[in-house]
Amino acid sequence: MRAMNLVAVAAVLMSGLSTAAAAAEPDGKALYARRCGICHFADGGGTWMLERRLGKSQALLESRADLQAPYIRLIARRGLNGMPRFTRVELPDSDLEIIAAYLTRSGPRP
Amino acid sequence: MERVLPPGMSAAAFDKGLVALRGVVGAEWVLDSDEDRDTYLDPYATGNAKAHAPSAAVAPANLEQVQAVMRVANAHRLPLWPISRGKNFGYGGAAPRLPGSLVLDLGRLNRVLEVNEKLGYCVIEPGVTFYDLHEHLTRAGIALEFGVPNFGWGSPVGNALDRGFSFRGDHSSSICGMEVVLPDGSVLRTGNGAMPGSAIWATARHGFGPSWDQAFVQANYGVVTKMGLWLHPVPEQVISVQVALDAQDDLGWFVDEVSPLLMRGVLGGNIAISTATNSVIDSSQRQEWYTGPGALPDSVVTRMMAERGMGWWNGTVRISGHEDSNQANLNRLLSAMGRHTRREFQVSRASGASQAARGPVVTRLKVLNWFGGRGGHVGFSPVMPASGAAVLGQFRRTKARYDEHGIDYNGTFYLNGRSVTNVNLMLINLDDADHSARTQRLFDVLVSDASAQGYAEYRTHLDYMDAVAASFDFNDHALRRFNERVKDAIDPNGILAPGRNGIWPSAWRNQRGSE
Ligand SMILES: Cc1cc2nc3c(=O)[nH]c(=O)nc-3n(C[C@H](O)[C@H](O)[C@H](O)COP(=O)(O)OP(=O)(O)OC[C@H]3O[C@@H](n4cnc5c(N)ncnc54)[C@H](O)[C@@H]3O)c2cc1C
């Protein structure tokens, strides 16, 4: 347990997040499901397109270990091909940080 | 994108307005960084995105703030463009008609205020999404549902205000009662809502005297802050008939046989019938089928039909209701179609509850990947009478125009009973300037072809609002002149959505037809 906590804290420090956001790790999963899951779960358009562009192993964002928070922030605000941009009303910075922390979390992937 | 100001406004005057808006909603909710502006651009624009560039966005939290924003806009002459969720993709997204307008983003007004299961309605705020409403109903175990467009990311309120539709039919016809902030900042309740404490605001459409709900649809007379919407009771059973018709001409008899069934209530909502390409474009990419020049040839479409077991025309006819009457209605449908074809259609039955549980989807957005790179799309959607000959003529003319311009034809005909709405999708390769230019030329010629037939569009992209409005020109544009007299009377400073649906306030009338 202790080791897990330390890893979590280290991840927080590295990504420059507030501990409040990190403490809400379960929220990260829920927020991700709500804002991104509609396209990035198994049968979504994002997954479908990423599989075509990057191959099956890179298709499910939630299963990837190579994503970096700045890249996630950039794509969310600038969009990418078929992915539309998110406004800060729909996805406030604080929510985006929680999602980025979730996608860059340490530990096993589904 | 760098800041684009309302035409003729100085940066100093605009900045003063922003300061006042920050005073109303808090600095955090006036969004005016370059990145913020970009998030409100039309992502799929074929033309110059700057033509509809917002100067900033302002996001009030409640009714009082919406009123205060309107007053600031009047004092500082700031044009506002209201959106509920701003997912009006294909028609301009969140972007305003007049460049330099501020987007009035209502996403923070997102409460489901009331759902009445017994009487089948809800009262919701504009920021409630189709997903939010679905979740609310599911969680509370309420056996009601609302029609969801093919692309379910938007909001019931924004969608109804642009006359969106689903297989449930026209969503604006579900509106029953609204709360509206007028351009001067005052609040109006329509219909029975005008009686304080009305017990029937969202159940009985008309109050006393003129009925104003529809005057706020596809218009710029007010900002809707609450809307009553009729919901559909979840039916006992849904029968789905997978219709596939082999020949292009089959569309004619299909329209003539099915429309009377809609008019008599044997079938409900509307019935969509689409080209085979319609399901190919959201499940594969163009290069998998064709890499040659010009539009997809008919021979490739024939190969799609063979490989996927489809007809030239395909659609799902839903029969919803009680099991016994569904079976009788199914028999009527099958015998009507049996007069023209020997094909056996696949029939499946499901409980209404299992269909309702599915909820909204956004997978349709996959069509944007048709070309592989940056994809865009616009739709051209004229309405014609429900006659097989009229519909076939429209199909033939339109397809010939697509072929002529080298654009892949993709058409859906929605049978409404007395009329048919023909949505023609144009997928655009935004990485290819020539393809975008050809699409624009195609759109222009389709507008004039349709108006020569007396067919108008039910809804259109920002770029075409003036052109479509101009085609409603009986008695020297009497309707447009009337719309604009109303506009000037209630919005003398022209602050609310100038140019929406071709309605220009006098303050901005010189912008009509501007790019
Ligand atoms: C692939 C694809 C498929 C689609 N399929 C369908 C479909 O089947 N049916 C369909 O109807 N649409 C369809 N659309 C179009 C669009 O996505 C939906 O209509 C969507 O619901 C509109 O976005 P919205 O609900 O966020 O409305 P908004 O963008 O918020 O609103 C639309 C317009 O209404 C006005 N408005 C909005 N809110 C207010 C308010 N509170 N007060 C005053 N004026 C307001 C504004 O002018 C605004 O521009 C499709 C789009 C795509 C990309």
Task: Describe this protein's structure.
The complex is a heterodimer of chains A (110) and B (515). Chain A is globular. With 110 residues, chain A is mostly helical. Helix content of chain A is 59%, strand content 0%. Chain A has one domain: Orthogonal Bundle (Cytochrome Bc1 Complex, Chain D, domain 2). The N terminus of chain A is likely disordered. Chain B is an alpha+beta fold and 515 residues long. Chain B has four domains: 95 residues, Uridine Diphospho-n-acetylenolpyruvylglucosamine Reductase, domain 2 (2-Layer Sandwich), CATH 3.30.43; 122 residues, Uridine Diphospho-n-acetylenolpyruvylglucosamine Reductase, domain 3; 228 residues, Vanillyl-alcohol Oxidase, Chain A, domain 3, CATH 3.40.462.10; 47 residues, Vanillyl-alcohol Oxidase, Chain A, domain 4 (Orthogonal Bundle), CATH 1.10.45. Chain B is built from 14 helices and 22 strands. In chain B, the strands form five sheets. In chain B, strands 14, 15, 16, 17, 18, 19, 20, 21 and 22 form a nine-stranded antiparallel sheet that branches. Chain B has a five-stranded antiparallel sheet with strand order 5-6-12-10-11. In chain B, strands 1-2-4-3 form a four-stranded mixed sheet. In chain B, helix 6 packs antiparallel against helix 9. Classes of the chains: A mainly alpha (110), B alpha+beta (515). The interface between A and B is medium-sized, with 21 and 33 residues.
